[in-house]
Design goal:
single chain, mainly alpha, Hydantoin permease, 24 helices, NCS1, Pur-cyt_permease, transmembrane
Length: 522
């Protein structure tokens, strides 16, 4: 029996043929633009409540910053990211297209695939790693119910880098997560809403517990700065770069979500909610970690390891459940949906968002064996974290191209045509290519040093401490200069051409042709 892999429903109406688009890749039609201001509040509160953000501020204390300095770095970093998110998010809300399609207008039809493919790979790896984090939450929940789980014998060899119980918990978490891959982006917002209500209250309860166990004036006073002078300045800038980097991916692909906005004003709230939510969660991580240091005599950055010390099984279960839910929402919003949107552009005849999420769950969840990555490849994880050297330039080019060079006057239907005005030179906007070289290459020595500190690169290592800011502002300036001196005249429009304009013109042309047929055949 022959298996038909092509999508049988939902062929796109944009592009020369179905090879270039499908229903999920087309601009979002009006009846599916359902996200309101409250949905974006819930989305970002949901994204802020995850283990990585909890640990962000705490890890800054490890390099010698005080808790106040760490919080200021988080606040400033997320204020900057919020501005970029809203600038790129407004584009998605106006044009109602996803990042991989929008990217063609600034990078060129074929060069845009560089950012798309690299982001797919990044999302697959982080999906697996977040799933492993979720499995640790499952372990703590099961341990709270059945403490004897710790005595289950390990039947796997040490080289497996995961225990029998660990693999069981991983399978349980993956199995719970997998059905959510079939939920549409319009409906998944309800998960973000539920998470944005349940998790913050649970974490507030954990923070109150820490203040009751150890008064704030005792445990926070322990977190004093151990750096001074230039070391303090570079330490703070490095912390700022970490704050910028943690969600720098979404500063680029936020159109994947804002294209569902009811109107562009609905997503303006991101400017406020992002710095507030992330700063508050950062403070929660600091407070609980500091209290744990006093209670247990060691710094426990991982909240799940902290929960493992608790004797109260009910409290341990509900706390672990909050991290379970937190990881679940983040994995879908930041990884599986992002990867799926990108995959639809790579093979629109065969992959829609639902299939893309399923592929992400299988490849990222099992084929990449995240437990092996976490156990034996810390240098690789350093490289993945260093991907911010590309994300800053990507965001800068997108912002400048839309707002300053084309002033919002772009042609949406042309973004689906490989021979259209965004072909530039053989599908490559050389201005974007040169900009990437100028803004990324200077950060590579620092990235190499970050992966392997034994490789000395001199003062170039300091530049990596401000990798995102250097990349964003350098790329913005260079791209604006090149596009001003050598403008791509063929891409300039007198006014924006939206999907609706294209469909109306096609409908009018069709009616005109039908009218002519009627006249000729009375």
């Amino acid at each position: 029996m022959r298996v038909k892999l092509e999508l049988t429903q939902g062929s796109g109406v944009f592009g020369p043929s179905s090879r270039w688009s499908n229903k999920d890749m087309d601009p979002v039609p009006p009846h599916l633009r359902t996200w309101t201001t409250w949905n974006y509040i819930a989305y970002w509160v949901s994204d802020a409540t995850n283990v990585a953000v909890w640990q962000l501020a705490s890890s800054m204390l490890a390099v010698g910053l005080s808790w106040r300095q760490a919080l200021s770095a988080i606040a400033v970093g997320h204020i900057i990211i919020a501005f970029v998110v809203v600038l790129n998010g407004t584009i998605g809300a106006r044009l109602h297209i996803a990042f991989p399609v929008l990217n063609r207008s600034s990078f060129g039809f074929w060069l845009s695939y560089f950012s798309v493919i690299s982001r797919v790979v990044l999302a697959l790896f982080w999906f697996g790693i977040q799933t492993f984090t979720g499995s640790e939450c499952v372990y703590q929940m099961l341990k709270a119910i059945w403490p004897s789980i710790v005595h289950i014998p390990d039947r796997l060899p040490e080289s497996a880098n995961i225990s029998t119980v660990g693999l069981m918990c991983y399978f349980l978490y993956w199995s719970f997560q997998f059905p959510l891959m079939f939920v549409s982006p319009q409906r998944i917002r309800y998960l973000f809403t539920a998470k944005s209500i349940i998790v913050p209250f649970a974490w507030l309860a954990i923070m109150i517990w820490s203040f009751i166990k150890v008064p704030a004036k005792i445990h926070l006073e322990l977190q004093l700065a151990s750096l001074s002078g230039s070391a303090l300045a570079w330490g703070w800038l490095s912390a700022l770069n970490s704050a910028l980097g943690i969600y720098s991916t979404l500063s680029v692909n936020i159109p994947d979500f804002t294209r569902y906005a009811r109107n562009e004003r609905a997503q303006f709230i991101q400017l406020i909610i992002i710095p507030i939510a992330f700063t508050l969660i950062g403070f929660t991580g600091i407070a609980v970690t500091s209290a744990g240091q006093v209670l247990y005599g060691e710094v426990i950055w991982d909240p799940l390891r902290l929960i493992d010390r608790w004797d109260n099984r009910a409290a341990a279960f509900f706390a672990a459940f909050s991290f379970f839910l937190a990881t679940l929402g983040t994995n879908i919003s930041a990884n599986s949906l992002s990867a799926a949107n990108d995959m639809t552009v790579l093979l629109p005849r065969f992959i829609d968002i639902r299939r893309g999420q399923v592929i992400c769950a299988i490849l990222g969840g099992w084929a990449l064996c995240p437990w092996d990555i976490l156990a034996s490849a810390p240098k690789f994880l350093s490289f993945m974290s260093g991907y911010t050297v590309f994300l800053g330039p990507f965001a800068g080019i997108m912002v400048v191209d839309y707002w300053l060079i084309h002033r919002g006057n772009v042609n949406v239907p042309a973004m689906y045509d490989p021979q259209g005005i965004y072909r530039y030179w053989n599908g490559i906007n050389w201005r974007a290519a040169v900009t990437l070289l100028v803004s990324v290459v200077p950060n590579l020595p620092g990235l190499i040093n970050n992966i392997n500190p034994n490789i000395k690169v001199g003062n170039a290592a300091f530049l990596f401490n401000i990798a995102w800011m250097f990349g964003f502002f350098t790329a913005s300036g260079v791209y604006w200069l090149l596009s001003t001196l050598f403008p791509a005249h063929e891409t300039f429009m007198d006014q924006v051409i939206l999907a609706e304009d294209f469909l109306e013109s096609n409908s009018a042309a069709s009616n005109e042709i039908n009218g002519e047929d009627v006249k000729q055949n009375p």
